[in-house]
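Q: Convert this sequence to structure tokens.
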Amino acid sequence: MSDVFLSYSRKDTEFVREIFDVLNARKREAWIDLHAIDYSAKWWDEICSGIDGADNFVLFVSPNSLESWFCHREIHYALEHKKRIIPFLIAPIDEQALFQTWHNHPDLSKNEQLTHENWKSIQAIQWIDFTAIRDVNTAVDALLKTVDTDPERVKYHTRLLLRLRDWESRGRDPSGLLRGDELAQYDQWLADSRQKGTPPYPTAEQEAYILESHRVQDELEAKRLQRERLVRRFRVASVVLGGFFMLAIVATIVTINITNRAVNSANAQVAAGNTKVFSGNTKVASGNTQVFVIGQTLTPIPPQLTSVRQTVVAGSFMIESLNLSAEANSILRTEGGNAETAALLSIRVLRKLYLDSADAALVDASHRLKAVPQVFTYRGRISSTAFSPDGKTFVVGISDQADSGDVELRDTATGSVIWNINIKSSGIYGLDFSPDGKLIVAAAGDTTGNILDAANGNLLQVLGPQRDIVVRAVFSPDAKTVLTLGGGSDRTVHLWDVGTGKQIYSVPAGIGNDSLFYLPGGQSFYADGNVYNASDGSPVQGSGVRGGTMAISPDGMTAVTGINPTAKLNDLNTGQELRSFSGHTDSVISAAFSGDGKWLVTGSRDNTARVWEVATGKQVLLLSGNKSQVEAVAFSPDGTRVLTGSDTARLWNITNDTRQLSMSAPAGVTVSALAPDGKSIAVGDENGNATYWDLNTGKLLRTFSSGNVDAKAIAFSPDGKLVAVPACKNMDCAYVELYEASSGKLLQTFSSDGSSQPYIAAISFSSDSKMLLVSYFDETTRLWDVATGQVLRLFKGNHPEMHGSAAFSPDGNLVALDLGETWWDISKAAPVKFPDGMRGNKIVFSADGSLVAIIDFNNSVTVWKVATQQIVKSFSGHTDGVKSVAFSPDNKLLLTGSADKTAMLWEIASGRLLRVFTGHSASVTSVAFTPDGQKIVTTSEDKTIRTWITDYNDLLAYACTLVGVDLTPEERTHYGVSGQDPTCPQFGDDASQPLLPTTTPMPTYTPLPTWTRIATPTK
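A:
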């Protein structure tokens, strides 16, 4: 989302760029098209997305813009979608001349009614008249005044429009609708917008979307009730079946007893003595009960009853799984939703049954749960936290207990309790370590401050009492004194002598936020918006920051304020807002800086904590899992851990985990090549750029080349030393540049040598990295010598209309041309006859060359054996064109990527679909396995590169390492979870239990033989 969309004529670019730069300097997000790309359908889609995603539509009004058909299209779209429009007049308008221009314009003349309606609508809106202001900064001030009017309602309009677009792009899948609390929020937004009667107004589409959300939610609720009734019927049926089982058993026993008595009463007595009827242990409902009498098996349970029982159990479990999967996805669609709960629900489903919706939810939840928490549970809420100066221990304060508050010290590395003491108080509201780590001061609800020995928790000194509760307490840098701040009716700051416990002085702090901090150097302190001299309490200056201050940066220059959902960074002296941190959905109530001042953690009433990069305001991590507001947060001294206090105390490891990584590329990725070691990836994008990324860190390492057309091919040499990328020179895009991967040095350039179609379709290396096969968008393919840059072979296909991908077998013996229409034996320099079926949109060899996957023309993929030229298996399941395919290192799995925005994992031997990878929002253009087969890398036109865990069993194991607590009994009841078994092994009594006893193991990976390199052919 952006703050403004800038609509303008390209003739006014110079002025608009100046406005854009000022907005950027003020940290406002502006969507602007400065790239002069062609006016294509793709361009218009991007423009529409930009308008949808902007809170305000700013029109730079000038004769140039009003005479531009493209500007009128943008205005019409903004009006149609009822965006808030801000006209910005930059040049006088002569209406008579304007109307004459419209009448004579080839496009505008056909749409004069639309242009007049646009103009009439724009005239009715309050303008920003730059022709009168004549100062860019003053004009931007006026613009931002409008932008910042009623911002929350405006943002809801934008968010709802984006949700609506996403729902439509997914074929109006019901999973994309609003539900629960989120739906209630938009109901309130709709009511508020109708009442206020000011832009932006709800669109008919938005109202219909909300109405449809209600309809589906009501329908799902009705189905849920129906399922519950069905489950109850199943259970009744199980009881009835149990009765049948019991009657069958009794009847059989009676029959056998009568027969035995009739034959021989003596034998009957012996039989009765030895008979073992396990009626007490019989599991009637299981359908497996058998009764044994003297080694004879009684009449088995009728198979019809067993089948009915199995249907009952399977149906009940399927209903539960679908419900849990839907709940998990609903949680994740809610802003700030508890990713830990969503992960736990998804894990429970996938342990026994594979559902792609549960898979998608677990991947999403795992991506959000980057920080791995340790969770500590107490009877009350955690209202205060602090790390020791060396970071080896941390302390928590517990409140909401009857006339008592606990202070507990734990070991940071192990989480084990070192000591716990109880203070007869309503709660502990503030904690602080002395700079040397030897003492702890606790601000208590019994109107006192309490000095504790950090080694053993012994009470050393009581500070007070004061007139009301003590809400904050901090040590001076020399640890000789303590400042306390009173709450309730006592808004007073007191300075105490630590050794004697006597008050040195007190100063009134006023009414405001509970803010108390020593400033760097310890010569002054900050309390409720004022700065005081630490020696005598005399005022030093009035701070520019008033109220809501929750943290002051280590350098004492800035402060973070909260109260509303957006935290703000302000200059402590002037009060000027420097940056905002937007993302929480409820008030921010706690905050802390890292020791180096680079990171900020905030806690909120939305039950989450979030970690931000201070320099940019970018959210780095969302820490979810708490069931109540996050009242206290703290950074460890080394910045690697965050401590949060809520219904539980949670210790988070915030070092980045790279096993589930998503990277953002500057443009839609059209092609990619994974390095042979799996540690880096080269990608080509829709702007013609070729870039190189580190998969472990997600960092862009370098840009190789840039062009002006979509990159359609890129390749690593098998030894990982070289990267071949397409390039353009003087509008000729039939060049291939060869770079050294490690340094980015350009080593060689291959010219098309007169190719009639100057675009590269495919690039591939020979197995020895000495030859390069390049296919052009005509009937030609060239085999180049890497060392000399000379053409070794020139292939001309038989069907020019079949231009496109060529493939090089790993052993270097085969080349597929014209999408498989023609196959060549390199060593013999002669065509090879292959079946007609061995052709398609793209051809990919397995690592050992024994198999080839061919993307067909009907959204499916067929795998062939190269040696026998026979079909192994066909794979069909995508709903749109298959764009890419890859074999696993052991040839057991096939991975496909499609324009339907998904990737699919298949078992080659059986043709079974194992997994669906859902998460990309646009076409999946490339797929690859890492060398060990344990991860998958996908790239997409949605501008992302994503890494996935291949085996969902491994995904479950990984996800279990990210969750801190299991579902509570109340949550199991709320979500309809059957059974009380632990969701993950660490929550059970037996830590040695297998993680996933019910899942089917996926194929294992075995190494394949390496190729014997062939000699470089000669012409």
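The first strand starts at residue 2 and ends at 7.
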